[in-house]
Amino acid sequence: CRNLLDRDTFSKSDPICVLYTQAIGNKEWREFGRTEVIDNTLNPDFVRKFIMDYFFEERENLRFDFYDVDSKSPNLSKHDFLGQMFCTLGEIVGSQGSRLEKSIVGIPGKKCGTVIVTAEELGCCRDSVLMQFCANKLDKKDFFGKSDPFLVFHRSNEDGSFTICHKTEVVKNTLNPVWQAFKISVRALCNGDYDRTIKVEVYDWDRDGSHDFIGEFTTSYRELSRGQSQFNVYEVINPKKKGKKKKYVNSGTVTLLSFLIETEVSFLDYIKGGTQINFTVAIDFTASNGNPLQPTSLHYMNPYQLNAYGMALRAVGEIIQDYDSDKMFPALGFGARLPPDGRVSHEFALNGNPQNPYCHGIDGVMEAYYRSLKSVQLYGPTNFAPVINHVARYAASVKDGSQYFVLLIITDGVISDMAQTKESIVNASKHPMSIIIVGVGPAEFDAMEELDGDVVRISSRGRFAERDIVQFVPFRDYIDRSGNHVLSMARLAKDVLAEIPEQFLSYMRVRGIKPSPAPPPYTPPIHVLQTQI
């Protein structure tokens, strides 16, 4: 923190920070943890870190409370309140360099200073290793030919038992096999513990499955990481033979030929490096939604609560907006007749400005949506291709991984331009974008399931989509029986956004785009101590 309030008469405050998280349903704040107390300073750099789970698709509200500690009491009401700061976890990780600076508020009429929160992903074990082994002079187990050897790797568990984690292929008829290189995650190999035992068994393959045991050896990730060297030549020992034969030396040797560490990059690595997520919304203004003035309409403008369109929009938008620095969102409509001449449009700006369809924040989008409902005439047909192509045009111009586009289409149903939409999706799958379709109302959404390529990858005229970019959900699956809209919105957002990070990564991987380095971490200015002489 910087420039905290001073509550002590003779010295400076002794600050502590208390972090609270908020339950989704009942909105109750629960204490998550406290930092240490730092004595006599208004510019503390707290050391104790908070470790929490991060899910892109969930909104995690946070509250940081600051107190000046006056006694040993754990009861916070016994200490002076210095103010608080509210934010979401997404806001922190979505900020440039995952560093958020915000004013502390909560004491009327006083400047309470600022707090700087930084987040980093715990990269324990995002590594994989690529290893290759060969063996020499293995025992001959087959009566007619030489052995057909393969290796089996096991990681040891806390209780001393072993779990199989990798099998190599079988190399036929040789006592000096060279196995193909294989890739395995460090987590699978040793659970991220570099000194844990890894047991490797050597077998001779038999067609009937009764593979003959040749011998075994143990190693660890730390030993293997030395790479090809005299330390990584292992004697294969068969304990039974060793017990019986005095002159037994070994049953051959296994040598590590290469060991390469590869770090898997994560969604957050890109966000931290400055990749922006651009959010566009497209709303269905076809006549099948019903007259917006009637309570039965899906577009009914109820003054007391959001309609299904508003709920879907808020649920998804409020999470995505944390990853978009300018918070300006293009909002489009389709399937309506526009004033003044009544022409039908399948991609019109909700704010009435085709040159600049951007709305400020989710509130701006909601406002433009309500305004449009009052001015346009609901019509038809239900065409998706124009809005998909609209976003794809923007996405096609960004090839360096600095931006990714998410289009949310909210619709009441049956699509009229299926062939064109499939063609648009196949084309869009080459660009940095994802499409979320939320179906509202009681219609049959079978056609939408076909667009969501989870079961069968979508194709058009014999061309398949390069990757799965569509996620469809029917809104009715999320209506909470008890009428708790907060819960149904959280569930909806969770399901439609859960696939985005993987779709995002699949684009970056196919294109070979690495995350930009994050900006250098914040270093607090050094306070010069002035002495009075």
Automatic annotation (TrEMBL):
Superkingdom in the source lineage: Eukaryota
Pfam families hit by this protein: C2, Copine
InterPro entries: C2_dom, C2_domain_sf, C2B_Copine, Copine, Copine_C, VWF_A, vWFA_dom_sf
Taxonomic lineage of the native organism: Eukaryota, Metazoa, Chordata, Craniata, Vertebrata
SUPFAM superfamilies: C2 domain (Calcium/lipid-binding domain, CaLB), vWA-like
Full protein name: Copine-8
Source organism: Urocynchramus pylzowi
GO cellular component terms given for this protein: plasma membrane
Entry keywords, A to Z: Calcium, Metal-binding, Phosphoprotein, Repeat
Repeat among keywords: yes
Positions of the VWFA domain: 278-479
Encoding gene, per UniProt annotation: Cpne8_0
Molecular-function GO terms, alphabetical: calcium-dependent phospholipid binding; metal ion binding
Any one GO BP annotation for this protein: cellular response to calcium ion
